[in-house]
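4.2 Preliminary Data

To establish feasibility before requesting continued support, the project team ran the inverse folding procedure on a target of 331 residues. The structure was first converted into the token representation described in Section 3, and no sequence information of any kind was made available to the design step. The complete token record follows.
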């Protein structure tokens, strides 16, 4: 085993392509309750870029290694570890910094991935699929045939919501900004895909035949979120998990008084912090089953070696991508 490993670090906040660099660090040694994981893949998420820029709510001590998500292979376990064995594919916990070739992790925080799931897909199961699953379960009691509406439907989280809702029997109205995405999302299982505009409420009503929509997933904010709120039934809930427009949600008083709409939020980091190991396993189990059957797949536009970190983060920051940017740690 190499005595050193490569890791991406930033010592100051700023433009990721400017402040990120790759350094060598000692290969980790496991404490008695830890396992050493050799990384297989780690995606570049918007939150990772925000963290490097200093715009994310959680700020690790500097210098820091980015990366909120990733998967790898256990290569060594500490003397007290009985539940894990070398060779197992595992998902890494939050707050670790996955943009590195290897790391030592408390064994209890690792999630073992069952067979039949590629490491690159396992590396992306922790944030967007969990976010979509929890939002579809924790706020409104939905039944098969019920409708959900969401914006940013072509995002990684939006595509997960489409795939999971289809598996659960829910119907989705998916709002996008570009017409070329309509057929693509319908092919992934979306029931209705509409381009955003001033006539959105009428278009949604026509497409759903006036169905009552009780759950909205919002990752945009601003005027788009207001237009979606206008499509909702009385007593409905809008869950905000992103703010792509950087604009606040401005809701008319009448929507609160007469429709009694509920506006709340979801942050996957907070869910992880409060979830027990049993609750995490309960959420991962159906997602693993979907992934094994090919029903939950995250599109990848390009993979990069860690040595090309600056190019990777530059690519990830571009709009109109067709999939995720992922670091791949090949031998």
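Position-by-position output of the design step:
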């Amino acid at each position: 085993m190499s005595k050193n490993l490569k890791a991406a670090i930033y010592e100051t906040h700023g433009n990721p392509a400017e402040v990120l660099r790759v350094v060598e660090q000692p290969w980790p040694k496991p404490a008695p309750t830890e396992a050493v994981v050799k990384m297989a893949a780690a995606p570049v998420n918007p939150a990772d870029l925000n963290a490097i820029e200093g715009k994310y709510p959680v700020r690790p001590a500097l210098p820091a290694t980015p990366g909120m998500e990733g998967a790898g292979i256990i290569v060594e376990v500490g003397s007290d570890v009985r539940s894990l064995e070398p060779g197992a594919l595992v998902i890494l916990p939050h707050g670790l910094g996955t943009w590195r070739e290897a790391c030592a992790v408390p064994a209890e925080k690792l999630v073992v991935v069952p067979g039949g799931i590629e490491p690159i897909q396992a590396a992306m199961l922790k944030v967007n699929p969990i976010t979509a699953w929890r939002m579809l379960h924790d706020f409104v009691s939905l039944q098969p045939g019920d409708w959900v509406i969401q914006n940013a439907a072509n995002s990684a989280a939006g595509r997960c919501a489409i795939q999971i809702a289809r598996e659960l029997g829910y119907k989705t109205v998916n709002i996008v900004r570009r017409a070329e995405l309509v057929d693509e999302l319908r092919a992934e299982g979306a029931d209705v895909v509409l381009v955003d505009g001033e006539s959105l409420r009428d278009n949604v009503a026509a497409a759903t035949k006036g169905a009552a929509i009780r759950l909205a997933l919002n990752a945009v904010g601003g005027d788009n979120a207001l237009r979606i709120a206008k499509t909702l039934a009385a007593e409905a809930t809008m869950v905000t998990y992103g703010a792509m427009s950087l604009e606040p949600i401005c809701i008319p008083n009448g929507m609160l008084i007469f429709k009694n709409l509920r506006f709340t939020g979801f942050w996957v980091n907070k869910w992880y912090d409060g979830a027990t190991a049993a609750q995490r396993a309960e959420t991962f189990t159906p997602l693993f089953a979907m992934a094994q059957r090919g029903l939950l797949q995250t599109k990848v536009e390009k993979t990069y070696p860690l040595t090309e970190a600056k190019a990777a983060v530059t690519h990830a920051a571009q709009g109109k991508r067709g999939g995720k940017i992922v670091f791949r740690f090949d031998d």
